Structure formats: structure tokens, C-alpha cells
Amino acid sequence: EWCFYCEQLVRRHRKFCMSPCPYTAVVKATKFLTGDANSPSVSKLEHALTLAVGAAAIHHVYTYGVKSSVGSVVRFVRGLPLVRSLVDSILKGEVDGAVSMLVGDAEQDNTTSDGRPVVPFPDKGMSADDIIGKMSSWSGKETSGPNGRLFAYVYTEGMEQSEVGLRAQLGQLQASGLGEHHDALIRRALSDYIHHNGLNPTAFPSLRKMETDIVSMSADMCNGDNNVVGSVTSGGTESILMAVKTYRDMARKLRPWVTEPEILAPITIHPAFEKAAHYFNLKVVHAPLSQDLGVDVAAMAKMVNRNTVLIAASAPQYPHGVMDPIERIAQIARKHGLPMHVDACFGGYMLPWVEAVGYSVPLWDFRVPEVTSISCDLHKYGYVPKGASVVLYKSEQIRKYQFFVYSDWPGGLFASPSMAGSRPGGPIAAAWAVLKLTGREGYMNVCRQIMAATRTMIEGVNSTQGLRIMGKPVMTAFAIESADPSLNVLVVADVMESKGWKLERNQAPPSVHCSILPHHRDLAETFVDDLKAAVQEVRANPKIADSGTAAMYGMVAQIPDRSCVDDFLTQFFGQVFTAKKSDSDM
After folding, report:
1. pLDDT, position 100
2. pTM of structure
3. CA–CA separation, 147 and 554 (whole Å)
């Protein structure tokens, strides 16, 4: 690998050989800098480097053994341009043959005449009967656990036990608000695929088919072409974890001089980026917000440095429902040659329909050329059960860094596309079924109704004395703050909870978050009426502020040492997730 000094020389002087060989790089650099290839100093340097490389080779053999040393030589040879092209050609042929044999896809071509993904988002939904028929046809051809002929992936005692587990799972499934036919199809998909495992794509081919369909349809929805690839994950956090892991590994390969990689993102970026950085040894550098609550692009541009390996932004950010200016941020990514991830876990399955029904939405998806990946949660505005999300990449050349492979395990060749090993088949099947059932037409119909409710609520908030909407939200979410210093919006939220509403609290500054969902369509005016009444109640009873969550948030906001707050949260979770005697009565 390059040493830091050699890499710097090569970056500054593109005239040398770009092969990853320190000896060649230093010799050519010296010749370039001195301008005299035959000078005694160059000749002595060549001899010295030859001895150094030879000594290093002997040391490597002595330290790591012959097998490891041979492997290093082979890897070096594979890196040579002509050899690499030959090996890549042979590997492609072998991979195509293995896929054809194990998966059954004789045709590997994913090109289409119009450049769109192979499986586009359906304009109109299929009937539930046709969807169930397809799932039954696929699963009926697969080896299942209950028939006793499967020796891995499914561990169940028998059908009676399975029925108990299924009833428990379906019993937790809440109504989506999209109708009984929608919820009945979800129950059927979960039921049919409760024992399918996405760990091995050759064991349950129907799950592989559903997953690739979901990715392709999502890519089409995000205006990607047929080069866009991705994975289905368990949720937005895993999608973000996978994106961060991907770009970290890509930087290790393509920018090995970066030893302390950083992600540059707005302060409103989802905490999952902090979690990913914590897990994968990166650092998140936060850019401040502008007056409109989108990121301050000018400040962000000044924060790029040699350690930056990824720029991330939100569409929209969760706290206030405000879009980051993706196109302007993309200019920073283009200037510095950096990848850019758009976190659309919250809005990915809503923004396309908001735009389609006539509202103004800034560009945020693959229509922005610098966007290299997007995360979208199916289990939010895709209206599928937890947990299902997708992470999309502009090309396979990026996604390949997401996969984990290990070829030396005695238990066989091991590979995993995402964070999890075993992956429950039910959520994948349910997500596929819902996308096929709803189609663009169905999503647009629901979007029109929810956006109408959202506009009613926003107008109601702005007409309430002492309250206002923060920024300019673009879809079905907004945040409420106090426009009157004497009115604590968190106390208003506490009073709203006493009226049966469950509101989310924001901090810095204090505000209340609202995501508008299908079941809010008929409650928008009731919400506004209750909100106005809650404000009046708070003004009439100032002592309400001494209790409830408003008091707790007020106390936390006054603590200057945030590590104390972190300790509080750690201990709180430690107690909440510890079994107690009282739990035995539940």
C-alpha cells in the first residue's frame, strides 16, 4: 500500500505511475523532481530501495509464513492493469455460471430500452388475489422447514408452535388506516413467509425475487436508472449503518491515506449516523442550520477537509420536516469528488407522490447527479409493517463495499449483504405485496388526502395565538414552536396528551414534532380545536409547567455538561430493559 509520503507525491504529480508500488512511485518521483534519470543519486536510491524491498520481503515471509507471503504476491500481481482485466473477465464468467446454476437466472442482463430499472414501480396496483396467487406459487416450489427436508435456516418444533407465534405476531399488527384489504394482505404475507429466512438467497428463491423487485421499484420511484442497486434492510438505522460502512470501506480502498474518516452532515441529520460512526470508527462533523432550518451550505463548504469521506443530508430532516438544499450541497460533493448520501428514510416514500400530485418539491433523488446513495423506509410512508427499509446505490461499484464475505470458515463460504445474518422473510414478503397492491395510483390517492389534512393542521397552528410552524415543511410533517416567550410549547404538548394525543418533543429549540399519517385524515380539525383549547388552558393555569415532560426537558436543557445527560439516558435504559417482579403479573 502507499505510504503517506508517496501518496502525497502521486496526488500532486499525476505524471507518475499510479500502480500501488512504493518502489516505482518513489523512483519515478525522484526522477521527476531532479529531472535527471541518470544521476548518481537516482542510481543509489534505486539500489537502496531494491535492498529495502528485498529485506521487507524476507521479513514478511519470516513473520507471516510462506502461504501469507504468496497471497500478498498474488494480490500485487492481480493489481497490475492487464492481469486485473484478465482476472475480472474470468471471474465474471464464473459468477454468471454460479448464479445460473444456484439461483436459476439464465439471463443476467439488466438493461432496458428506456434505461429504467428492470422492475418499474407499477402505475396501478394488482389485485390481492393475484398477489396471493404469485406468493403461493413461489413458496410452494421451495423446500420448507415443516416438511423435514431442510437442514438449516428454520428452527421450529412444529406447526402448533408456529401457529402460536403467528398469532402473537399478527396480534401486534395495528391497522394501517388504508383499509381492511390492505391489512388482510399484510397478514397473509406474514403468515405465508413467517418461517422463510433471507440469509441464503438460494434456499428461498422467492425472497430473493421479492427483494430485488423491491429494490428495483424503489430505484424507479427515486428516478434511478437500471444501474441502481441496493438491499432491503430491517429499518432506517440499518440502511444508514450499511451506507456508512460502505463509504468507510470504499475510502479504505480508494483513499488509504485517510486514517481518521469523517462524515460531514447537518446537525439535524438522524442520530443513526452518530450510531454508525460510533460502531465503525468514524466521526460526524455537524454543520449548522440556516434561518430556514435547512443546513447552512456556505458554512458546510468550509468544513470539508482531507478526512471527509462522505457528505450526508436529509430529505426531509425529521425534527422540523424541512428539506436540506440537496442540489446546493451536491455542488460541494462535486467540487471535492466526494460521495453523497441522501437520508430519505422519513420522506422517501412520500416525497415522490407529493411532487406527483402537484406540490413543489426541491430535487433530492437520483436526478441530482452527485447523489450516490439514498435510504428510504418502507415501514413509514410505504405503509408496510416493521421492519423494512431500502438502501440504494448509484452502481454496483459502490454497493460491493457493503457486502461482508469470509471464505475461510470450515462451515462453508460465508457472505452477508447487510448487517443481519438471518433475516425474517415476513417483512420482505409484506413489503413486496403492499407495493404491488398499491401502485403509484394508490400512493398518490393517499398522499392527496394526507397532504390536505397536513395543510389544515398547519393553517390551524399558524392561526393559534402564541404558536407557529417552524420553517417551510414540504410534506406530511411539521414542527410547532412558541411565538410567545410566555407560552411553553412543551407544556401545551403535555395538555394535549391529557386529551389523548401523543406528540413528539424536540429540543434546541423546544418544539413539538407531528408526522401526519393516514389515520389523521378525519381528525385534522379536531386536532386544531384541541390545540387551541390546550393553549388557553396553559395560559389560564401557569402551574401546569411544574410537572410533566415539560419540566424534565426544561431541566435537561439547563445542564451544561451533556455527558451527564448521556449518563442519565444510559441508566434510564438500563432500568427500563431489566426484568422486574412486577413484570411477572403482566
Report:
1. 66
2. 0.82
3. 59
Closest among 241, 245, 246, 294 to 272, alpha carbons compared:
241
8 Å CB contact between 24 and 3: no
DSSP per-residue string spanning 14-25 = TTS--SS-HHHH
- Cα 240 to Cα 271: distance, rounded to the nearest angstrom: 10
At 26, the pLDDT band (50, 70, 90 cuts) reads: low
> In the 3-class helix/strand/coil scheme, how is 526-565 assigned residue by residue?
HHHHHHHHHHHHHHHCHHHHHCHHHHHHHHHHCCCCHHHH
Residues 6+ apart with CB under 8 A from 508: 557
Which of the 8 DSSP states describes residue 500? Answer: T
145 falls in which pLDDT band (50, 70, 90)? low
- CA distances in angstroms from 492 to 26, 346, 464, 485, listed in the order given: 68, 25, 12, 13
Helix (H, G, I), strand (E, B) or coil at 307: coil
**Residue 78 parent element (H or E):** helix 40-78
pLDDT at 74 over 80: no
Mean per-residue pLDDT, 464-491: 96
pLDDT band at 483 (very low <50, low <70, confident <90, very high): very high
Return d(Cα 546, Cα 392) in angstroms, integer: 47
User: For residue 243, what pLDDT is reported?
Assistant: 98
**Residue 480: beta bridge partners?**
469, 512
- Give CA–CA dist 111/117, Å, rounded: 8
Q: Which three cell numbers stand for residue 475?
A: 410534506
User: Please, what's the b/e burial string for 500-539 (b: 16 or more CB within 10 A of its CB; e: otherwise)?
Assistant: ebebebbeeebbbbbbbbbebbebbeebbebbbebbebbb
Instruction: Return d(Cα 8, Cα 496) in angstroms, integer.
Output: 60
CA–CA dist 476, 478 (Å, integer): 7
Burial zone of 98 (CB within 10 Å; 0-12 exposed, 13-18 middle, 19+ buried):
exposed
Measured CA to CA, the distance from residue 344 to residue 364 in angstroms comes to 9
H or E element, residue 570? helix 562-576
Count of CB atoms situated within 10 Å of the CB of 562: 9
Q: Determine contact, residues 392/222, Cβ cutoff 8 Å.
A: yes
Name the packing angle between helices 425-462 and 180-192 (round to 10°).
150
- Beta-ladder partners of 511: 506
Return the closest-CA partner of residue 368 out of 407, 413, 331: 331
Q: Are 315 and 347 in contact (CB under 8 A)?
A: yes
Cα separation, 211 vs 24, in Å, equals 46
Mean model confidence pLDDT for the chain? 84
Give the whole-angstrom CA distance, residue 231 versus residue 391.
6
Expressed in angstroms, the distance from the first to the final Cα of the chain is 59
230 membership: H or E segment, kind and range? strand 229-233
Q: What is the pLDDT of residue 16?
A: 43
Residue with grid cell 460491493, as numbered in its chain: 400
pLDDT of residue 559: 75
Angle between helices 159-171 and 180-192 (to 10 degrees): 150
Distance CA 417, CA 201 (A): 10
**CA angle in degrees (0–180, nearest 5) for 474-509-295:** 50
